[in-house]
């Protein structure tokens, strides 16, 4: 693992690492925030943060303003990239922002030419935690959160791996990707035309079909002035599924907030406190 950035912040450390990933068969970069108590050797729990379309590990670390609260709560935060990267990694022919590089959708692609490297599900759920837990002073307590495409990732990975994550949260998530343009485009490209293969990656369907062993608590925050709300995000589908199945979903709509990191920066402390409750 190569250390590519090392910044002291609020008494803790922000670090970026590059490493060869066996899962995505390319070099990957991730960032980790370690609170100050980790420096004295105390092991801390980890929140995995999954970013949205066009992002890298840097967006959250630079814009969310999560360090002070994470430091006070004694939580490490890991922010992976949103897709495999590099010259040889296949991209969308049109180089659009919502498919290919920067848009891995946190699933294992089955369709060539994407299947070789776009294995983000296995990278996030298996390979990355193994790396984190063997190199850093962390416990095996994990929570998962994310934004937009990363909110979809947090919900689907969290629901499907309720033995691995104690709580789940999301900002402005894509909740029903089998029914919105971003999801349909990504699932067609990565998973093919057989829609039965898509169901396993749709938070609403996972909730409806009770595809979880333990109903881990979920917090979802959504801004009312989000320009993707009606066409892409449609959180009411998740609210309806949760209600129908008595799933512990805490859904909060916030007036006037948009889709940006200004919204995330406004409520990240609340999300961190939510996760800390279940780490305890
Ligand atoms: N039209 C936007 C769509 C992408 C977008 O809004 N991305 C969100 C996640 S879905 C984001 O976090 N962008 C990066 C940032 O704000 O730092 C663009 O082309 O950048």
From TrEMBL:
Gene3D superfamilies listed in its UniProt record: alpha/beta hydrolase
Gene Ontology cellular component list: cytosol
Reactions listed under catalytic activity: S-formylglutathione + H2O = formate + glutathione + H(+)
Keywords for this protein: Hydrolase, Serine esterase
GO biological process: one example: formaldehyde catabolic process
The protein's Enzyme Commission number: 3.1.2.12
NCBIfam families listed in its UniProt record: fghA_ester_D (TIGR02821)
Family: Belongs to the esterase D family.
Protein name, per record: S-formylglutathione hydrolase
């Amino acid at each position: 693992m190569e250390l590519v950035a090392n910044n002291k912040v609020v008494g803790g450390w922000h670090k970026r690492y590059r490493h060869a990933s066996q899962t995505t068969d390319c070099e990957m970069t991730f960032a980790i925030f370690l609170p100050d108590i980790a420096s004295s050797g105390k092991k801390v729990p980890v929140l995995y943060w999954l970013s949205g379309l066009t992002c890298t590990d840097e967006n959250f670390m630079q814009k969310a303003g999560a360090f002070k609260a994470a430091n006070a709560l004694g939580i490490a935060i890991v922010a992976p990239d949103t897709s495999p990267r590099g010259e040889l990694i296949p991209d969308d022919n049109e180089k659009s922002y919502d498919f290919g590089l920067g848009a891995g959708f946190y699933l294992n692609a089955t369709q060539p030419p994407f299947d070789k490297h776009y294995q983000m599900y296995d990278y996030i759920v298996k390979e990355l935690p193994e790396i984190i837990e063997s190199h850093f002073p962390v416990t095996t307590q994990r929570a998962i959160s994310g934004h937009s495409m990363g909110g979809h990732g947090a919900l689907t990975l969290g629901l499907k791996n309720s033995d691995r994550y104690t709580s789940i949260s999301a900002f402005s998530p894509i909740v029903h990707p089998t029914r919105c343009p971003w999801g349909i485009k990504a699932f067609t490209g990565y998973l093919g035309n057989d829609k039965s293969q898509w169901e396993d990656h749709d938070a609403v369907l996972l909730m409806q079909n009770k595809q979880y062993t333990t109903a881990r608590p979920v917090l979802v925050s959504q801004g009312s002035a989000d320009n993707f709300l009606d066409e892409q995000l449609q959180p009411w589908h998740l609210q309806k599924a949760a209600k129908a199945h008595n799933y512990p979903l805490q859904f909060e709509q916030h007036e006037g907030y948009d889709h940006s990191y200004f919204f995330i920066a406004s409520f990240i402390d609340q999300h961190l406190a939510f996760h800390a409750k279940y780490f305890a």
